[in-house]
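User: Run a structure prediction on this.
Assistant: Running it now.
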Amino acid sequence: GAAWHKGTHLVVPANIEIMILPPYCPELNPVEKLWQFLKNRTIKNKIFSTLEELEQTLIETLNALTRQLIASICRTSYLLF
């Protein structure tokens, strides 16, 4: 992984355990499913005339997300601990 993914000066609270994910394994990182969802909803097969138009589309898409929708997108049965 990239150097910025392996910070050596990171202060981790005692109740947090850092798990280094193997490279190129988006299936182990559920938030990757959310990024894919956002990409498909905002920029896939679309051309924006301005940066502001893209920004507004992203803002509208993000504002429409609910906790339930995010949970359903990121949920994976194989990552239950």
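The chain is about 40% helix and 0% strand.
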